[in-house]
Structures are given as C-alpha cells and as structure tokens.
Amino acid sequence: MTRIALTAVLLGAMTSAAQAGEYCTLDESVMFTCTFNNGAKAVEVCDTNYWADGDNASYGFYKRGGAIEKEIITDKASLIATPWSGVGRSIWEAVTFYSGEYGYEVWWSTERTEGAVLEGGITVTQNGTVLADLTCDAGSVEQNLATLIEAVEIAQVSP
Predict the structure, then answer these.
(1) What keywords are assigned to this protein (predicted)?
(2) Measuring CA to CA, which residue among 83, 78, 82 is closest to residue 3?
C-alpha cells in the first residue's frame, strides 16, 4: 500500500481528476474515462462507493449520447489490479473487470519524460486470449486508477 501511495504522489502531475460523463453519476466516482472512434464511444470506470451501496466498482462502455453496450458492476476484491512497478521508462497501471470468461482490462500509460502524453485503452480477452485491443482517442484519457487500485488492494486483504 505504501508503494501505491508513493506512486500516487509521483503521478500527481500526470493524474487528472476525471469528470463524470454519461455513465458515472458523480465526478468524484470517475477513476478512468476516455473516448474511442473520434468520440463516438466511451468507457468509464467508477468507484461506486460514491453513489451505490457496497464496496464495488463499475465498468461502462457506451455510445456517446446512447445506450450502454457493456456494464459490469462488481466487488472491488474480485478485480485484478496491476499497479505500476516503479521500474522502466514508462509509467502504467491497469484494472481488469471480469464477466464470465471475458476480461476487460482498462489501462493507461505515459513515458517518464516532461510533456509526455497519457495513453490508454481496453484489452478484451476470452479465457486469456486477446480478442481486441482498443486504443483511446488522443487527448481523451483522464485517470485516477492509483486510487482505485489502492481500494482494490485494501478490499482484497480485508475480511
């Protein structure tokens, strides 16, 4: 947990306070958001503690101004959280939501250089085999996954 807190401090300049879009109901609950296909579709990852009962997180993939195409609401302890290891020329984090045999890994990364751009996306798997890699539109990534990853780690060690 100390490593995550340190990572959060180190990433302060690269972490933006994501804003509620069309899926998360409160600004404070948005842990990741970005758009795809020139803004036609979007994904949001939310900490549902801000607007629902239970220690849950949610994943929503949707058409902008339209219907939700995929929604997963699950307890944080069941998420796979991958914090940045602190090594390498890039900084990255990921959280994976599962729905049956499908995994939806939401990730972000950036180079460790001044002025580096945030990148992000979704990797969709079925039984561990990659089905699709979706890359977020340039400039659309807003994230606070370090906060969610810390909450996931706490949920996984708490009874």
Answers:
(1) Signal
(2) 83
